[in-house]
Specification:
Low-confidence stretches of chain A: none
Number of helices of chain A: 0
Structural class of chain B: mainly beta
Oligomer: heterodimer
Shape of chain A: globular
Largest sheet of chain A: 6 strands, mixed
Order of helices and strands of chain B: EEEEEEEEEEE
Distance between the termini of chain A: 41 Å
Strand content of chain A: over 45%
Helix content of chain B: under 10%
Radius of gyration of chain A: 13 Å
Shape of chain B: globular
Number of strands of chain B: 11
């Protein structure tokens, strides 16, 4: 069965600092991978996705993620964090029938 | 823009009540999903539907049922609400053949 692990429950970074959120997945075939963001009181918004091809994918709001098959990882990065990036971030993998399996989320706090 | 709407943002019900959560999408998507979101557990799939009158169990269907009488509407039903069903409920839809799910804003249900 597919699964996703986000090892960091909570991360705090200073505004302007770089960010990396970790995601490891388990899936038997080539995965489709996603990062979603959830701002307080909001639904989930797609940041970026990986289906195939270039392993470095660019998303919205200046985020990028790199797919590393050998490490079963899909880490999310941003070179310079803004206070508005404070939110909860979810990594997800999809298998058959468009069913998404989510990680438990990483809550990002940004200090000014 | 795809829009997924949920009938209530906040709902308070009593133990034993029958509860209906409604979800409507306006983009003619075939597939619709209900998730519940709990701290530390991420999002877990309750039920999904590929088409009108079709439904499939997700990972945690116990205590829930669903109804899909029209393509745009997918209802989650708690036959007899219990306190352990207090949670945030998120609806999503996706066009068949696509891999990007669009999420509603969520309904925060409290069962007293």
């Amino acid at each position: 069965a597919q699964s996703v692990t986000q090892p960091d429950i909570h991360i705090t970074v200073s505004e302007g600092a770089s960010l990396e959120l970790r995601c490891n997945y388990s899936y038997g075939a080539t995965p489709y991978l996603f990062w979603y963001v959830q701002s307080p009181g909001q639904g989930l918004q797609l940041l970026l996705k990986y289906f195939s091809g270039d392993t470095l994918v660019q998303g919205i709001k200046g985020f990028e993620a790199e797919f590393k098959r050998s490490q079963s990882s899909f880490n999310l990065r941003k070179p310079s964090v803004h206070w508005s990036d404070a939110a909860e971030y979810f990594c997800a993998v999809t298998g058959t029938a468009s069913k998404l399996t989510f990680g438990t989320g990483t809550r990002l706090q940004v200090t000014l | 823009d795809v829009k997924v709407t949920q009938s209530s943002r906040y709902l308070v019900k009593r133990t034993g009540e029958k509860v209906f959560l409604e979800c409507v999408q306006d983009m003619d998507h075939e597939n619709m999903f209900w998730y519940r979101q709990d701290p530390g557990l991420g999002l877990r799939l309750i039920y999904f539907s590929y088409d009108v009158k079709m439904k499939e169990k997700g990972d945690i269907p116990e205590g829930y049922s669903v109804s899909r009488e029209k393509k745009e509407r997918f209802s989650l039903i708690l036959e007899s609400a219990s306190t352990n069903q207090t949670s945030m409920y998120l609806c999503a839809s996706i066009l068949s053949g696509s891999e990007e799910q669009f999420f509603g804003p969520g309904t925060r249900l409290t069962v007293l």
